[in-house]
Amino acid sequence: METIVSLKPVIALVVPGVTAILVMAFGKYPNYREACSIVGGIIAFVAVLLMSRIILDGSCYEYEIFRILPGISLKLRADSLGIIFGIICTLLWLVVSFYNIGYMRGLDEHAQTRYYTSFALTIFGAVGVAFAANVFTLYMFYEIITIVTYPLVAHHQDEEAYQGARKYLVYLVGTSKLFFLPAMVLTYILAGTLDFAPGDFAHGIFPPEADPVLVTITYVLYIAGIAKAAIMPFHNWLPSAMVAPTPVSALLHAVAVVKAGVFSISRIMLSVFGVETLTSLHLGIPTAYLASFTILLASVIALTKDDLKARLAYSTVSQLSYIIIGIAMLTPSSIAGGLIHIANHAFSKITLFLCAGTIFVLSGLRSIKQMNGLGRKLPVTFAAFFIASLSMVGIPGVCGFITKWYLVVGSIEASRLGLLVVLLASTLLNAAYFMPIVYKAFFEDEPEGQHTLTMNESSAYGLFMVIPLLSTALISVVIGIYPGFFMNIVKTIVMHAF
Amino acid sequence: MWLFFVFCSHTYCSRRLSENAFTVTGMDLLILNKLTYPILTVLIFMPVTGAISLLFIRNETVQRAWTFMVTLMTFAASIPLFSQFDSETARFQFAEYHPWIKTFNINYVLGVDGISMTLIMLTTFIMPLCVLCSWKYISARVREFMICLLFIEAACIGVFSSLDFVLFYIFWEAMLVPMFLLIAIWGGPRKAYASVKFFIYTLAGSVLLLVAIIALYLKTGTFFIPDLMRLRHLYGFDFQIWIFLAFFVAFAVKVPMFPFHTWLPAAHVEAPTAGSVVLASILLKMGAYGFLRFSLAITTDATIYLAPVMIVISLAGIIYGGYIALVQSDMKKLIAYSSVGHMGFATLGIFILSPNGITGAIMAMLAHGISTGALFLCIGIVYERTHSRLIKDNQGIAGLMPIYIFFFGVFCLASFAFPGTCGFVAEILIFFGIFAENKIAGAVAILGALLAATYILRLLQKICWGGIVIHHGNHNHDENDLKRKNLFTDLNPREIIYLLPLIIMVFWMGVSPGFILNAVNTTVQNLVAQINSAQITVTVFDRGPFLAEIFRNLFWS
What we know:
Chain A is built from 18 helices and 3 strands. By secondary structure, chain A is mainly alpha-helical. In chain A, a hairpin with a 2-residue loop joins strand 2 (60-69) and strand 3. Chain A is globular, with a radius of gyration of 21 Å. In chain B, helix 16 (355-386) runs antiparallel to helix 21 (493-511).
């Protein structure tokens, strides 16, 4: 594997940061301000996309920005694992930047400059997590995400928002200080370095003579410490964070926060511990069972939720564990399935959230019960919702199917019948909590008082919202039929893991 | 007082002096000053001269400007200390040696190593900022205030650079008086209580320090600190334990370590902003410096023997400070208790007795000096506007003072060791040290780090948005809003100027601390080598004084 020293990952990181400053500077001119976000999104996306070509050939870019202590530095490396997350972050930031205009102006929200600034900073953190070359850099950007998303979650600044944001902060800061930090310290003590093994997902960084008990403890601390992945029992912040404006929920859930969590866990499992270490210490299967517990329980809870965003939140908790379970089964197919789900889930889930936001802005509704017949008034939105929920269920032709396929094959490879049953059962549960929404929206009669729309899908703000969600729905279909691009990247990862 | 002791022992020690005192000299441990001017003497006496010349200045603005100039010049003069510092050697550099009171072998010896150099730099760096922050805040008796500040600066530099124990003690005590006056004259409503408490606590501690100094003199016949380190083999284990305990009380009060900390919140709360900053950034460091310079290097065996106890006390301080800070409604008190916690980390690092721990402790001292000093400055800024230190009177100002919140937020992050800021480097080094030593102690320290994040984020949240509840659809501005708008004006250029250097240091030390780590590395390695070469001669029958035994068993067995 060839390593090229290059500023390119730094550029991808700096662009969102600079965007945040510009957004602040143009605070008084809303049109320029929003233009900054969009231009920033385009530049960042192109910068990441340009790197992917070399990475597909098996090389990686890296750049050390600062050396803090021996073995600890602020260092970026764009490799095959990071680039998946990098592409998703920047692309979806661009999409949501358009959507934001419709949503925020449609609702005439306050403090929009603060909102856009925090948004850009969140992407800054997420890109940093994606391209982190060592545990320290990962930890730093992970914490940055926590802090800068606080103003987003508490955006409404009413009692409910403060409560939710407080819970959000308590869970994320608490776990990262209590578990992630000591895990990092133990890693350094055991391995003498925090740098990920470049391009090697098999061996990890621990020397063979490291005490297996301590390595196991470190592993457990990492799993508990990265609460952004919302593995139960540390998932409760996620439903509380639903008080945020919907584009924030979309970004939080599909991209920046939770994905930063699962990505960090994947990164730790593959680049710090490595497949061989995890196999020899028998850590994979217990993790997989922990994840499957989360999958099933979260799906069941989702069934009981009437608030559309709450249902989507629990769906996220459940779907995230697909990624964990895939990697934890430690077979080539399952790892491929888990990693590609980072992309698949991102595009489908952001579509679902953007739909929920559009429904709220256009009709003012959040409760699923009241959405009977709404699909006929908002046909495009609900069509996109339908496509994305098919992907969540895992129907062929939409990207979620690719995940399911590889995960099922993986569970058979690992010869774990229990996990296979979990995957199939969760498919049923997914269908059970998504399909009724679509069915009711299209086929049930409207309630007595009829829905009154404040705006149409074809109004100016409506279009700002509908076009982004339609495009992400479209991407879900395209990468369901032609999964080649992400699959090639995932294959290079799997190749280096076995 | 010390004269009394010295006289009493005169006959005894003059007998001893003739025996062995001059057979050993630590002159080879000094590298005499090679600069064209005696830099350390200049650093000490420049503020003194500035203070004296203040007496001849009438105009208050000129007095302020003059003091600012003097502190700035002192900082400029201290720069060669850093730039010309030889980080390859552990010997004392820039040394000056002048005989003083020959009868008792007391000399005027100055010199710095990595540890004291960084602390002197911190002192000279903080002082101009203190003057700037008092510009408007102090309107009565400006001249006297500035004289106090300059004397404190001189005494602090003296403490950090003295290599003679008597000289050290003189500076140590000299610093007390101006600090006492600072609190007692320009302090808040309960200034009498706070200043007297501060004075009595510190003085009580330093009396024992004096006893230890004299005991060491009687044993060795010298006050020269490098010699006292070198003559360690003369001290029996019992003797070391007693000396250690005497040092401990003196330094623990100053740090302050857990049961001796109660003077600190009182002093911080009542002191004017500049007083709080000096107290937090510089004065507290003197205790930790004392541990590093004297306890570790002179009473090495006792240190090794009692280190577990010290670690337990430090951990208690970390948890206790954090816990109490959690419930404070007074911002200054909150930061004061956070200081107890942060300095707990510093002493924890020191008594891990490993290179990582000690380097981490030095970083923790510097980082605390920067971030806590900055937080006190920030609190001073809102205090000047509202004349209240309570959180509830200063909350919800994110919309009104965005620039202020930017600075305040960064300092808060630095205070709870956010990665990329100065606090993190310190904390992670100490964690590396403690986890390598004892995992359970490490877990407790982690809990302290969590507490630090909790109380600081709580404070930050309240200051930003506390008390603001937006009722949607209701955008009316009432009179109260207008009043608040007039009250909370954003930072003026002077305030930005004195916060800016601190924010630069926060990030510079956070992402590239090499410039400090290189400077202290050799000194720390040398110190650890000294400790490792010590052999504890504890047998079953000779296990140290009874008190120490109880002390140790109480905490650790």
